[in-house]
Structure formats: C-alpha cells, structure tokens
Amino acid sequence: MDELIFWGTVTGGILGLAFLVGLVRTAGFRSERVMQPKSRSQRAVAEFCARLDFGDMFAAIDIPASHASREIKRLLILLAANPTRKRPVGEPLASCWLTLVRHRERYQGICRNVFGPLGSVSHERIPPALAGEAQAIFASDYEAMFGEAPTVAVWGVTGGNTKDDDASEVLLLSVDTTPVRKVIRKDGEHTKTDYYGGHQQYTSSK
Fold first, then answer.
1. Is beta strand 161-162 parallel, antiparallel or unpaired with respect to 157-158?
2. What tens digit of pLDDT does each residue of 57-87 get?
C-alpha cells in the first residue's frame, strides 16, 4: 500500500510538472505571436524581421532601443499583411521609421525582402484629427496579429486616440503597390533583370 501511494505521488508530481511546463510554453507562444502569423507569406516576413538587427540606429530617439526595434518589425509585418491598408504612426516611432528611411541602402534592402523587388513604403503627413478611422483599424489589426494592444507611448496613436492631442502630424504609411515591370537583358556573359515600378529601379545579375 505504501509503495502504491509512493508511485501515485510521483505520477501526480510528474503530471503537475508537465502541466506547468505547458503553461509556460503557451505563455511564451503568446508573447511571441509576432513570430506566428497565419499565412506562409506572413511567416516568411516574420522570420526575416526576427533576424533584423538595427544596432544603435535609434539611439538618439527617446525610446528604449529594444522597444523601437520590436515595433518597427511589427510595423513591417502589419504593412506586409495588408499592403493597401494605411497605418498611422505617431511619435516617437515615427522618428524611428524616418531614421530607417534615411539609411537608404538598408531601408531598400529591407523593403525588397518584405514587399518584393521594388517594394517601398509611401507616407503622408496628416493632422491627428484626420487619422481617426485608420487608427481604429490599426489598433484592431495590431491586437489581432500580436495578441496585445499597441502602446500609445511608443506609437503615439492607438484606438482613435493620440498621445498628444496637440501633435502637429501623424505619418500615414502604406505599401507602394505600383505594378512592377520586369525587363531581362544580356550584358556580356551575364543576364541582368531590371525591375521598374513605383519610384525605383532595381537590377539583379546572374
């Protein structure tokens, strides 16, 4: 009888430990939902973004570097998930985005990997009062994708509200969906492919 009680206790302990491990793994999965989008293309974008390292690119901006890096990656994922949907970005994340854009070669390389050979993001500056509908849609999409609400202290906008009612402007970002024209040509022994579209030209060689 004592032996039966002993083994019953051991079995119960193992099952309890397995349950706790399951909870931890589930919590970890939820916290990393940025890495678990629904479609294959979204997963590819998320995996690429996970490997991005911005270093000290955003050091001069009043936001922790880890927050800036994570939210810029999430912005890229949201833009790729629905290219025609406009995403409002306020301060301080807007300054992070514009800083990335100024690093032209790095920005263009990221856009090619996320949005295609001539992928680029267009932006316009609008008063916060005009971004209400886009903000509400953005907040809903963000929570559906990442399992948590966007932080107004980082994004400057969320759910139809702005961090500062007196803010002068909000960036409204969307993917440039201008059709790409591909031209293949011979250059000596090499084959070059020219891509034309939007405001860019991109050449690949083989």
1. antiparallel
2. 999 999 999 999 999 999 999 999 998 899 9
Q: What pLDDT is recorded for position 143?
A: 93
User: Comparing C-alpha atoms, which of 63, 79, 65, 70 is closest to residue 156?
Assistant: 63
Judged by DSSP in three states, 125 sits in: strand
What are 47's two structure tokens?
Answer: 């995996």
146 three-state secondary structure: helix
pTM over 0.85: no
The Cα–Cα gap between 115 and 82 comes to 11
Token pair of 206 as six digits:
């083989």
* Burial degree of 131 (CB within 10 A; 0-12, 13-18, 19+): buried
Element (H, E) at 25: helix 2-31
Q: How many residues does the chain have?
A: 206
Query: Residues with Cβ < 8 Å from 87, sequence gap 6 or more?
Result: 75, 78, 79, 134, 138, 172, 173, 174
CB 145 within 8 A of CB 75: no
